[in-house]
Amino acid sequence: MSRYLLFNKPYLVLPSFSDPDFERGEIAEPRPTLADYIAVAGVYPAGRLDYDSEGLLFLTDDGDLAHRITHPHFHHPKTYLVQVEGIPEESALEKLRRGGLAIKEYRTAPAQARLLREEPALWPRVPPIRERPSIPTAWLELTLTEGKKRQVRRMTAAVGYPTLRLVRASIGPLRLGALPPGQWRDATSEEMAALRALLRQGQRPRDKRRTRR
To answer: 89 CB contacts (<8 Å, ≥6 apart)?
Structure first.
C-alpha cells in the first residue's frame, strides 16, 4: 500500500534525503535533510521547497501520483504565506495578480495575492528574520499555479518588496494546519480523495485535445 505523508519542513533543511554538496566534498559537514526527520522507506518529495523556505512538503512512494502533482501541465494551486519588507501598495498586488512579470527566462502566470490584515499564527523561525527598525514588514498570501525555481521570492522582489520569510501553507486540498515544524503525518483518506479529484480535473484539458485529433 502506498504512503502519503505531509511534512512541515523547517527552515534550513534540505528537501531531500541526502546533501549532494557534502557528498561531492564541497562542504565539510552535511546540512540537515529529510532523513533527520522522516524514517519511512521509499518515500520522496513530490515537488520542491527551497532550503530557506518552510512549510508543507508532500512525500509519497506513489510515482504516478507524484508525477501528476509535479508536472507543470496540471497547474495545481499552491498557497504561500510570505513576509515581505515594506507594506505593498495595491498596484504591486495587482501586478502579482495579473501575471506577466518578467523573471529570468519566463513570464509569470496570473496569481492570487492579498495583503493580510494580521500576522499569521506561525511558529517562531530559528534563526529569526533580519529586520530593520526603520522599515516595516507585511504578510501576503499568494496562490500560484506554477512552480518555477525561487519564484515567489523573485515575484515579490520584482514588484519592489523582497521576501523575508516564506511558508507554504497548502498544496491543492492538502493543508499544513497545526502540524508543528519538523513533524509529519499520514494524509487522511478524505485528503487523498480530494487530491485525486483535483488531479482528475487537471487531466481534462489534455484529454479534450486528444479527442479532437
So the answer is: none
What are the φ/ψ torsions at residue 100 (nearest 5 degrees)?
85, 10
Q: Domain 1-75+172-213, CATH 3.10.350.10 — does that match?
A: no
Indicate which residues carry an active-site annotation.
50
Q: Are 141 and 116 in contact (CB under 8 A)?
A: yes
CA distance 162 to 158: 8
pTM: 0.92
Tens digit of pLDDT at every position of the chain (213 positions): 899 999 999 999 999 999 999 999 999 999 999 999 999 999 999 988 999 999 999 999 999 999 988 877 777 899 999 999 999 999 999 999 999 999 888 899 999 999 999 999 999 999 999 888 899 999 999 999 988 889 999 999 999 999 999 999 999 999 999 999 999 999 999 999 999 999 888 654 333 334 343
CATH 3.30.70.1560 fits 77-171, yes or no: yes
Residue 37, all three cell numbers: 526527520
Cell reading at 172: 491543492
Dihedral over alpha carbons 67, 70, 72, 74 (to 10 degrees): 70
The domains spanning 1-75+172-213 and 77-171 adopt the same CATH topology: yes
Q: Is the Cα torsion angle 177, 180, 181, 185 positive or negative in sign?
A: negative
